[in-house]
Amino acid sequence: MEDHISVTSLIIVLVAAFLTPILLKRFHLHFLPVVVAEIIVGLIIGQSGFNLIEPNEWLDILSTLGFIFLMFLSGLEIDFSIFKSGKRKKLMNGKPEPHRFGVAVIIFIFILVLSYLISLALSLAGLVGNAFFMTLVISTISLGIVVPTLKESELMRSTIGQIILLVAVIADLVTMILLAVFVSFYEKGGNMWLLLLLFVAGIGLYFLGKFFKNQTFFETLSTGTVQIGMRAVFTLIMILVGLSESLGAENILGAFLAGVLVSLLSPNKEMVQQLDSFGYGFLIPIFFVMIGVELDVWGLFSNPSVVLLIPLLFLGLLLSKLIPVVVLKKWYDWRTVAGSGFLLTSTLSLVIAAAKIGERIGVIDGEMASSLILLAIIACIFTPVLFKQFFPIAENAEEKKRLKIIGANQITMPLTKEFAEEGYEVYLYHARPNHSGELPGSPDFTVEKLESYAIEELQSHGVFDSEVLVISTNDDELNTNIALEAADSEIENIITKVEAPTNQAMLKEKGINVFSTIFSSRAMMKAMIASPYIADIFATREEGLMEVPLTNQEFHGMKLRDFPFFGDTIIVRIYRGNESIIPHGDTELQLEDRLIVTGNHENISELEYLLE
Questions:
Q1: Which stretches make up the RCK C-terminal domain (predicted)?
Q2: Under a CB-based contact definition with an 8 Å cutoff, are residues 116 and 135 in contact?
Q3: Is the pTM above the cut of 0.70?
């Protein structure tokens, strides 16, 4: 009978986790994070609602594994390349760009100090017991909320987006380490110095992983049923979790450290997606649903002190983030500053972790632990909404490069859509006086119909106000004339379709890039006959050759073998002035080098961002 009950409870939890995102989509509850919705569903089916779940060993094990995997993915989310300053630019408002890392550190220090002062005030008022523990709770920031919110708002690559992300990353790292140190001091028999053994072991495993990653035989074991990379990741998690518990630390510290190490080893995107799919598709939803199942909301609100404490803690969360971000006022307007503070107030996984650990070691009771979890839920529901209400997203989004294309045909139409999806601001211009139909539009790019391709008509539509201009009508002479007119404008890159060799030579002398469909097709056919594998680089849709300029002073003089990130990109050639260099491990990069690379678009974009 006991087995039947355990299976029934597990099935109910799994079905609840399965239905949650479907219900969010069906009822258009986009403002609500999925993990928060899972906790709310847990409340409905748990002891605060219909009490359908009977806790048992199966659910305990799966919930614990979900918690461990959540901490692992929190560590994996940290992209250490954002700690590099890169080239300083001007903001869209004309002000010089702030030093991202320096400003983020200052903001977090203010957050930590203010969190301690708020915790001390709550402790003196008799509302909380340990001020240092509550400091860690108030100063936490949820990467799991910040990252998707920035991505959705297209702010990830903008300066303000990077500052917000850096603050969240620093908070994640520091509060996790301080929580581990606090537990070592607080628990009887705990030894903080044993934590050093854990980090030493982590460093050793990192170098071991780096060594094996560069071995050829390791790559041969990464496909089919072997999947050696995935096996290595799960082995690393269990080794560090087991070592953490053996040294008297929390298992989540080992899991978090495992995530950090995997992130430092720069795993390929496919592996990260697989880990995300496994975690957020199976184990983590069980953990969050069970959080709601075990939460007794009615019992909490029956206590008057809790009813007073939760609003005060929420106010403390807001003040601890809104006041420090005033530092940003030097560069940004008040709406941007306030919106940034609201997003940084979002907190979830680390508060839940702290609540569970605090209850286990006795620094807080079960009622306080439940109050903190409820506080995290409230913060995750309201702060992303407040961020979207206050933050001027359009004004701070990453400035897109403008691409304008003259002439709609079977070549330019697919390119227009692809470049729009890759973040370009795309305009397609066409003139069809004898054609009454309209070109298919798209929310990703603008289609403008012209009366003709006359220069005056193009100028009136601002066609020459662009970073990249592609001219691809069916008239050779027209393309040549438009390109020559465009050459007098400040356009970074002009590309035109011209078949006549005499016109091609003349346009190239003026720095205009020329392509010919006849010669290109002939060259591609010849390459496919003579060198099919090389030709495949150009023929496939997902990969191709791209030019990436090096303007980041930090990488000047660095050898390619020491470069921190290439992902799956390969450098085919380096152009330095008029010199063409075949790259190898000892090749030193120099400013203004132009790297010709191949790989998937996502990794090439990441490389571009790193080198800019």
A1: 532-612
A2: yes
A3: no
Distance, in Å, from the CA atom of 142 to the CA atom of 351, rounded to the nearest integer, reads: 9
Of 104-108, 582-586, 606-610, the least confident: 606-610
For residue 429, which phi and psi values (nearest 5 degrees)?
-110, 135
| Cβ–Cβ under 8 Å, residues 512 and 487 | yes
What lies within 8 Å, CB to CB, of 39 at 6+ separation is 288, 289, 291, 292, 295, 373, 377
The DSSP annotation for 21-82 comes to HHHHHHTT-TTS-HHHHHHHHHHHHSTTTT------HHHHHHHHHHHHHHHHHHHHT--GGG
| Other Cβ atoms within 10 Å of 515 Cβ, number | 15
Q: Which helix (H) or strand (E) holds 448?
A: strand 446-450
Strands (E), 461-520: 468-471, 493-497, 513-515
| Kind plus residue range of the DSSP H or E element containing 322 | helix 304-322
Looking at the predicted structure, is the pLDDT value of residue 428 above 80?
yes
The one-letter code for the residue type at 368 is M
Residue in this structure with the two tokens 């983020």, named with its chain if needed? 104
Please compute, for residue 42, the number of CA atoms within 13 A of its CA located in the half-sphere on the CB side: 30
With b meaning 16 or more CB within 10 Å and e meaning fewer, what string describes 77-98? bbeeebeeebeeeebeeeeebb
CA 581 to the chain's CA centroid: 34
Rounded Cα–Cα distance for residues 344 and 341 (Å):
5
- Structure tokens given for 475: 């008239």
Residue 541 has pLDDT above 50, yes or no: no
The rounded distance, in Å, linking the Cα atoms of 232 and 265 is 12
